[in-house]
Design goal:
Strand order of the largest sheet: 12-13-14-15-16-17-18-19
Distance between the termini: 73 Å
Radius of gyration: 26 Å
Mean pLDDT: 94
Strand content: 15-25%
Number of strands: 19
Structural class: alpha+beta
Length: about 450
């Protein structure tokens, strides 16, 4: 990946710099660095610092905290894609005697396994990992606080368990597997479990005075898969591009898309906030834009990676303070600035390579009762069903090769679409998961459930 400062318009670059300058000044961060990725390439890097002289650049490491969880989730998804495990498997099948074995792999990834948010005392982020040498020390005597699978409850021990699962199935340490399966293939040479110079120091900023206190830098030991990593805006920009597109050397685009898909039940407060969780990735709706990624924090450091797949824009923001700037808001704003100032240019429309007369005969207007829909055949080989006016159920369908189709999204995901033909071969109606779609509203010649009044449509005098 190359960094081109000229790839964005001058006004856009100034708006980005202004946003991080405000965040650093008002958030009182000793330093703050950021990067923007567009169409898989880093197109901007910015930094603000309280230190005179050369400020941090895209090669300076910061601790990224819970951004580490995405990396751990990718390792688990690789095991799934290789057939080593299934996301529906109970943990006990692969990692026995943890005390939380009834939870599935997917539930651990989505923080719905019912585990506690933190490990037992002492405060794990500010104490050596050697105090928790075994999983039992991380999980404690009562690891489950909620029924398994019933609610979203963010859990650092849950990702510690997933890291142990990776180690068990790979026969190597989490750090070794991470390096071999993600960092090296993606060229993330400045991402590591331990800090490597040049790296920022972690600071606490006094809440009522412009004074600093150095924070301890602890090795998290067993809990490393939940938050140990150090990285740079340069490396995380590459990682953001991977999360948008996938990479056959690490994880397919389809599996990365699965990670970005909501997987956790949402509570009322989360609905109001427009937030949920996928498989290792946070998901939120902000300013009408769907954003995925993750935040991170450890004493002395804050981190955020935000990605808008639709806009093909991502932002990375890192700071070396325990609290202060709201990096999630900053990341979302950086994405918005680029997406609104320089909207994504769509790919050229292209026609179908071949036209199948049988598929073409299905297109056009259909009615579910009195609701009017249009069915279109698109160049990617799918059928798209959408209401002619207003809101309603929209869906895409993939061909099964036998004249039937299967929904790939929304209400009709997984549901069969079957053209029902008359004796002469013409299409009578569409059967979509038992719903009958006809060419005319309540077509009397189609087998409409409940039948159609013999007197037909009428007025009222």
């Amino acid at each position: 990946m190359t960094t081109s400062q000229e790839a964005l318009l001058p006004g856009t670059r100034r708006a980005l710099l202004h946003r991080i300058a405000v965040a650093q000044a008002e958030g009182r961060a000793p330093s703050l660095v950021a990067a923007v990725v567009r169409e898989g390439q880093a197109v901007w890097h910015g930094a603000r610092t309280s230190v005179d002289g050369h400020g941090p650049d895209e090669t300076v490491q910061y601790r990224i905290g819970s951004l580490t969880k995405i990396f751990t989730a990718v390792l688990v998804m690789r095991l799934r894609d290789e057939g080593v495990l299934d996301l529906g498997d109970p943990l006990e099948r692969h990692l026995p005697d943890t005390g939380v074995g009834e939870a599935t792999i997917a539930e651990l990834l989505a923080h719905t396994a019912g585990l506690a948010a933190e490990s037992p005392a002492p405060w794990w982020e500010r104490t050596p990992g050697v105090l928790r040498p075994e999983l039992s020390d991380v999980l404690g005597d009562q690891p489950l606080l909620h029924p398994v699978g019933r609610r979203f409850h963010y859990s650092n021990p849950g990702y510690t368990v997933l890291g142990a699962l990776v180690e068990k199935l790979r026969g190597a340490s989490w750090e070794e597997v991470l390096r071999d399966e993600i960092l090296e293939p993606l060229g993330l040479h400045r991402t590591s479990a331990q800090p490597r110079a040049p790296h920022a120091g972690g600071w606490a900023v006094h809440p009522w005075a412009d004074a600093l206190l150095p924070e301890p830098l602890e090795d998290l030991g067993r809990m490393a898969p939940a938050g140990q990593l150090w990285s740079t805006t340069g490396d995380l920009a590459r990682f953001a591009a991977f999360l948008a597109r996938g990479d056959g050397r690490v994880l397919s685009a389809e599996s990365v898309r699965e990670m970005r898909t909501p997987a956790a039940p949402t509570e009322a407060a989360d609905v109001m906030d427009g937030a949920t969780y996928g498989l290792g990735m946070q998901i939120q709706c902000r300013d009408g834009r769907l954003l995925v990624g993750h935040s991170g924090s450890l004493p002395g450091f804050l981190a955020n990676l935000t990605l808008s797949v639709e806009d093909d824009v991502a932002a990375v923001v890192l700071a070396n303070c325990t609290s202060g700037p709201l990096l999630g808001a900053v990341g979302a704003d950086l994405v918005r600035i680029v997406a609104e100032a320089e909207p994504r240019i769509p790919e050229p429309w292209r026609p179908l390579r071949e036209v199948d007369p049988a598929v073409l005969a299905l297109t056009g207007q259909w009615y579910w009762g009195t609701h009017a829909f249009a069915l279109r055949a698109t160049a990617d080989g799918l059928l798209v069903l959408a209401p002619l006016t207003g809101g309603g159920r929209r869906a895409r369908f993939r061909a099964n090769g036998d004249g039937t189709w299967t929904g790939v999204e929304g209400y009709y995901a997984g549901e069969p679409l079957r053209p029902v033909r008359r004796s002469d071969g013409t299409v009578s109606h569409l059967d979509l998961g038992s719903f009958v779609f006809t060419r005319q509203p309540y077509d009397p010649e189609a087998p409409v459930p409940g039948g159609v009044d013999a007197e037909g449509w009428r007025g009222v005098g």
